[in-house]
């Protein structure tokens, strides 16, 4: 394939052995830069605010947000493989990645103007910006993932991949704590070290603490993306222009898809991942909206919820590397998806009046706490913690498994297809959620429908052949 031109061998670029280089650390740090927006924006703070306040109806809000993400999924499915193929033809990833990072930061910052009652961005424009940010986020993922094999040798791919996810969740914890202490708690809880009102002059009545996470995430992204551009190895440019590379990349993608008949194991994994990754992404997108709408949690509770889950998700990033080397890459992914499926079922069995789908007395406090004091809340939180660990671990293990299964010289195209496999049906999970939510007028029914994708994806994954074991010198 074309990306071999001008490129040094992976060993010469990456080095060898088990030492994690500055380039690998910088590659992992990009997750620290990018992932906080997922946690603060699409899960715990901004998306529930949009659903409950800007749209003003949790059921309608969940359905509308699902529609926006479905639209982004369709665009990604059509375009992301060609972006990967174009990057292979051009050689260097960093120029395209810089454009995508800038577009993502601009979209995220623009959401500051999302206000209720049509006072800020109109709903249609907010939907368009949300869709564009979703597309830009996945574009950064395609380009970033395709650099993994250049940043780290085979023996530490899992460690570096998991480390990136751990750093992403650690950054999310840091920012969630920052928002909690400086914006959510002031004026709500009397503690000596807290101011009497949100810092930075933020007006709680105008929902500025909820909206401030957009500016914070955009600035964080730009600042901490810089090390990747300075230190992570890139390929040598081929001199081909982007327009020509995209045009020629169409043919490359068609040929790559055709070649999957020669790489049936890769194709089967991509199909399995297409389904279970869609389910995982949907859980991340809708778990915050579901918890806020069903449990009735406000900003303070959602921030605390997000902090706890993000702390435990850090361990998921490290767990993936340990599992990969202990039980093997394929078995690790199977275990992680299985746990995710089981926890999802248990989570939707909880509500203020039910546990494991059985009725319970509402509002019965089981311990003296200002947050998460009832039995359904504690149980929901417990299963959510486990699912945060398993989803994070599954992302790391799946990415490492794809890197090991990818044919040499086809990393960009294969990771374009990898993104496609995570987005070709990206309209399906939001569509299922929207359909079941609207049909049954139930957040629970909509959230539970995600289990269908996890179940089918897990079944297909069982038939994927694992990659060969690494030699001792590669894992030393």
Overview of the structural elements:
The chain has 476 residues and is mainly alpha-helical. The chain has one domain (21-468): MFS general substrate transporter like domains (Growth Hormone, Chain: A). The chain is built from 19 helices and two strands. It has helices spanning 10-14, 22-44, 46-54, 58-90, 94-110, 123-145, 148-151, 157-184, 208-231, 242-259, 264-295, 299-327, 329-348, 375-405, 411-421, 428-440, 443-448, 451-461, 472-475; strands at residues 354-355, 358-359. It has a two-stranded antiparallel sheet. Strand 1 (354-355) and strand 2 form a beta hairpin. Helix 4 (58-90) packs antiparallel against helix 16 (428-440), helix 5 packs antiparallel against helix 6 (123-145) and helix 11 packs antiparallel against helix 14. The longest helix is centred in the N-terminal third of the chain and has 33 residues, at 58-90. The two termini are 30 Å apart.
Task: Map the helices and strands.
Elements: H1 10-14, H2 22-44, H3 46-54, H4 58-90, H5 94-110, H6 123-145, H7 148-151, H8 157-184, H9 208-231, H10 242-259, H11 264-295, H12 299-327, H13 329-348, E1 354-355, E2 358-359, H14 375-405, H15 411-421, H16 428-440, H17 443-448, H18 451-461, H19 472-475
